[in-house]
Each structure stands twice: as C-alpha cells, then as structure tokens.
Amino acid sequence: MTSDQSDDSLHIFDDLAHGIEDKELASGKPWHILIVDDDPGVHNATVFAMQDIRIDGRPLHFLHAHSGQEALELVRNDDDIAVAILDVVMENESAGLDLVRNIRRDLGRSEMRIILRTGQPGYAPEMRVIREYDINDYKTKSELTRVRLLTTLTTAVRSYDQLRTIIIGRHGLKSIVDAAPVLFSNRDVAGFAAAAVSSAEKILGRTSADIALCAHRASYGSHLDQPPYYVIGACNGYARHLGRPLNDLGNAAALVERAVAVRQNEVAGKDAAFFIASTESAPAVLLVSTEAGLTPAEEQLLAVYCVNIGVGLENAGLIADLSFSAYSDRLTRLPNRVGYVARVDDHLRSGERGWTMALIDIDHFSELNDALGHQKGDQLLLSVAQRLSASLLPKMTLARVGGDVFGLLGPDDALDPVQLMDHFRRPFSVGEYSLPIQATIGLTRLDEASGSDGIDLLKATNIALNRAKSGDRGRWHYYTTDMATATRSRLDLLHELRLAVEHQRGLELHYQPQIELVSGRVIGAEALIRWRDSDGNFIRPDLFISLAEYSGLIVDLGAWVFETAVNELRHWDSAGLSGVRMAINVSLVQFRDPQFLPRLRAALDRTGIAPDRIELEITESVAMLDAETVITILTELKTMGIQIAIDDFGTGFSSLAYLHRLPIDRLKIDRAFVRDLGSTRASGASIAQTVISLGQSLGLSIIAEGIETDEQAQLLMNLGCPLAQGFLYSKPVDSATFISWWKARQPT
Ligand code: C2E
Ligand code: MG
Ligand code: MG
Q1: Which helix (H) or strand (E) holds 478?
Q2: pLDDT of residue 293 exceeding 80
Q3: For residue 727, which atom of ligand 1 is closest to its CA?
Q4: 729 CA distance to ligand 3 centroid (A)?
Q5: Percent of the chain with pLDDT over 90
Q6: Which of 258, 289, 354, 670, by CA, is between 20 and 30 Å from 553?
C-alpha cells in the first residue's frame, strides 16, 4: 500500500467511522484503537484494512495521531483505549519509545496494549525495552498484512479486555471494601443513600454514570399505607429526581419495578437495576444508567456491592429507629427523659432567663393501670398528654419523663402550678370510663437552682416532686437549695455501703440462668449482686449501684463481685455443673481503675477458670468514658479470651455510632422491649427485631433478658434470638438453689 491511496481511503474512513458510531449504539460499545504514525497513508490503509471488522461482536473505533505529542494528548483524554499501534520513528528516532514510556510510566496505563510497527527493520527495540515497557508485539510494516493485522489486533484487544476486567475488579473490590465503613457510619437514611450512590460511582470509576437509589418509603421510617417507591439517593443525570417518586424516572422506573417484582437484577440496554434485598417488606433498587451500558465485570461488581448495601440500608433504617427510641417516647411520641434533658440543656445554652421546669406525676397511676389494664392505662396517658400539650406555647416543651411523669419546660409565668393543677379539674375520658385524676407537681425555677446541667436540674425537680408527694404542704412544691440536705439519706446509705464493702458484710451474689432457647439447655448464669442492710432488708441494686458508681466504691465492689463469681464457677465445676458460663456486670467506671485488668487476670490464674467462660456485661452508657479508653480495654479483654456483651441494649444510644468499632460478642436486648413483645404495643417487638437483625448484620450473638412468658420465648425464638434469661426460667437465686435447679433440669 502506498500513500497515494490515502485520499480515497480517508473518505472511506470518514464514512466508516460514522457507520461505526451508529452501530455502536445498536450493538455494544466499540474498541478504541489508537493509530500513531506520521505517515497519513498508514492511517488510511489500516482503517481500510479493518473496515467492517468486529472483534468479539464489538466494532472498532479508530483514533488518529501523527506525532508522539498528539498521541499523548489523545491517551490522556480517553481512558478506554484498548490498543495503540504505533510507529517507532516519528518526529525523532525515539519518539515512539518515548511515547510508550509516557503511557506506561507517567500515565500509568498498564492495561493498554501496544503494538510497535516500523518501516525500518533496523529500528527494532531491544528485548529489554520490550519487556520493560510491556510492548505486546513488534511488526515491520510489510509484515502487517490484513490477516496478520487482524490476528494481532484481536489478540491485543482480548488481552486488554481481560486486563481491564481484572483491574476494574481489583479496583472495584477495593472500593467496596473502602465503602463499608462510610456506609455503616451513616446513621440516617439520607446520608447513607448519598454515600451509597457515591460509592457506586467510585466502584465504576467513571463520572458519567447516572445513579439512583430507589427505596420503599417504609425503609426510611415512615410507615404509610401502601406507599410508593422513592428516589432516596441520586447523582449526575438523576440528581434532579432526588426525593421524588419513582415514576419521575420515566422509562427506567419500569425496570426498577420489574427488579422489585422478580427480586432480581434486571438489565435493559443502558439501564441496569440492581435488586437490594433489605427487610422482606422493603427492598431497594440501585439504578445505574450509562451511555453504552455496563460491562459484565462492572455488572458483577455492582451486584456484589448491592449485597452489602442491603445490610447498610437496613442498619441505617434500624439506627434511625433506635435513635427515635433513644430520644422519644413511643406511646405519646413526646420526648422521653433523655430528650427532655437535652431540651433543658439546649435552653441553658441559650442563656434565656426566667424559665421553669416542672414534673407532673399522675397520682395512683399504677393502681389504675392494674385495675383497668395496660391498654386503658396507655389511653389515659395519651389523654393527659393531649390536654397538657393543648395548653403549651409553641416554644415550650412537654415530655414523658417516666411511666406516669410528664416534664414541662417553659417561661415562669406559663408554668404556674395553680394553672397546671386546673388541667386536672375535669375528668379524663378513657374508653367508657370518665376518670377523675389528680396530679402532684415538682417545679424548679432555673434561675434559682444551683444545678448546672439538665440532669442536675431534673434531679432537683425530682426532689421537689418527692417533697410535694410527702404531702405536708399541698400538691406542688418548688425546689429550694435547702432541699439539698434532704439528700442526706443518700449519704447515709453510701456510708453503710462503704462499710459493707470494706468488711464484706451483707453482700451476696445471686445467679440467674441463661438458656439456649431451641434446646432449653442452661448455658450459663448472670451474677447479680444482693446487699442486705444492717436491718437484714435487701436493698435493690438499682438503688445502690449508681451510688457506688458515683462514689467510686464500685471499683472495690466490682472486684469483690468478680472474685466471688470466679470462685463460684470453680465450686460449680466440682459440684458437677459442667461448662457453665458466668456473666458478670461491670460498670465502665471500673475501667478507670488501673488495677482492673491485673485483678481479673490474677483471679483467673488463681482459679484456673478458662477466660472464655467469663462474659462481662457492660451497659451502653459509654458516654461516661472516651471511646478510645473503652476500645483499648475491651480489646485487651478480648485478647485474654473474655467475652463481652452490651447490657440493656436499645435503651442508650451513645455507643451505637461506634458499635461496629467495639470488639464485642453479644447484645443483650433490654427487658423493656421483651415486655412489649406479644402485647398490643408493637414497638417492643419491632425494637427487639431491630436489635436482632442489627446484631446479625454485625455478626454478634444476641441474648434477651426479662422473659416472663412462654409466648415471649416463642416470639423471640421465631425472631432468631438464640439465648434467653428471665423469670420464666428462674429468678436470680443463691448458689445452692442454682445448683439444685440446674441438677433438676438435667435429663436423667
Ligand atoms: P441487669 O444487668 O440488666 O440485670 C437484670 C435485672 O433484671 C436483674 O435485676 C434481674 O433480677 C432482673 N430480671 C431478670 N429477669 C427478669 C424478669 O423476667 N422480669 C423482670 N421484671 N426482671 C428480671 P437486679 O438484680 O435488680 O439488678 C439490677 C441491675 O443492677 C442490673 O441490671 C445491673 O445493671 C446492676 N447490677 C447488678 N449486679 C451488679 C454488679 O455486680 N455489678 C454492677 N456493676 N452492676 C450490677
Ligand atoms: Mg446484666
Ligand atoms: Mg440488663
């Protein structure tokens, strides 16, 4: 072929190129082939020779450069060039090899295949260069007949395709791994959705894809009847549909619906819909639309990725749910105690003066509750909440601080106790009943209280409420600083507790069995402390544990508990209770004690008890300590082989954000959620379910506490909860009783 053919074939090239572009849309995207040669004839001849050629069903698209410099520019702007066929000698003798070096070293394009060709056989590069720059083929121009060129090109294109798949795969898998913590740390669904979409974009490694995450409304918190699908995350071309219903997406909406219907990924031309299995009721779909469709490798990666998203989306929904339950009361949907304290803190920060907080306690609520049943009790609380909230100014807060205690926060004159009492003059109607209800009120004028934060002020108001309840001066009472002396009795109690710990007097451990639900087998026991005061009365741990924590006494008390529990395990071993595990409550305050770990180790060494038979239960209120300290100590415990459970899970919130960073084994569902199981109140069941699936997705085991009925046990088992503890099996009992209980349960 000579250069005088060039003009004709140039026209042919133009036509051909257009033809290819049209076909490209019809059937698969073309391979980009770069021809670099300073001789225009070579360009034309190559294109001519390759016209109508398809490699693996895909057409060819040629890019043309006439110098190394020009070629470099083209390569820079096109990241999908499969093969470069280039001349060795162009503007200078080394232009070709320089270009190769630039492509490989500077642009880092290792997957592009390179075929060198030269008219002068003497310019063949050395083997060393060929190897170093990964040059795939070297041909003299005369060698390259049409057939040779085709085979050479086919081999090169295929090898490019394979390399590309590997590189996309490696890069994509890395992006999937990198995406996990980002996705997981998003607590709200919107944040999660945005992160999910941008991670998908990163996985594809191109910015031209339009991506939308479509989800059922139910999966992000609102439980409306038969709600439609929505776009909850979107980028590029789909960005303007964010927050819009699915049918906003036009044709692609049908594909998304089909994916939901068949619960599978669906591809149609340039659109791909990846089905994301979330909770059974609310799946989601990641819609990815690209100019020329996805490659099989990209499709596979996104499919893997979407399996991950399912877990994350679920968690974001769960966490939003839990976050609601942490700050709000499910029954009245008012702020709960935590929410109330937060509002008081907010108010304190605002610096506005002249405000009061009030606690309103409904008299004899528990008797009413018992007499009329829980459902009526709930209705009564709702009507009290309604009446109180109707009287509020917009800037005031009403909260449900406890079972039958409401909290109010507002300007002094809006919280006048006489007016508040007026709300209780008329009876409350509950179903067929009309109930005359009285209330008792404790109030604190924030300007007059010494408390510096919401919790202190709540305590102060509580003291006022208790004073009002003791009833010597009417049904309400304002907090005064001299009431602080009333806390004397706490000090007395503390004094007595100090003596008890010092002399190990009146302290006992009781044990409550833990059961494997499916088999009914006893797998362990939780050690619970009991304290008898000097009169021989049991004092509830709820009363003195917080006192011990507050005073630091918990360090010695906790050490005694651990020591006693481990000794007891050894005793049980010799009594024939094989392999029973012991769960021991530890307060995070104990973590501050530098002797904590050494003491644990010493007790285990001395008794020879295997560390994996010990489980430490810590409560969620890790806010007391900084995350790093907690993580360091937990990691240390874990290395020792000790198991760790989060107690009363679901009632606190602080640790959720970094739950996945904590080396823990088990979540213990709080008994408040178990109590509501099977009752008309669905929230308990949904929280229990939430905790179980959260645990499952984090690879944690679950135990439920406070099981009192067979129905609760059955429901929990159905929800996939493996372990349980509660009065249904046994109350906490002393060691001797535990041993005989255990033996009585053994199959004979
Ligand atoms: P916890 O660790 O959540 O312990 C479970 C509590 O639930 C125990 O109360 C137990 O008697 C009670 N319980 C168990 N099953 C049922 C049931 O079916 N229904 C009902 N209504 N209650 C059930 P207890 O013994 O009064 O302990 C209260 C809390 O005091 C414990 O809650 C724990 O946080 C703390 N505590 C107890 N012993 C220790 C200890 O040695 N060290 C520390 N730091 N805290 C302890
Ligand atoms: Mg516990
Ligand atoms: Mg608990």
Answers
A1: strand 476-478
A2: yes
A3: 18
A4: 16
A5: 36
A6: 670
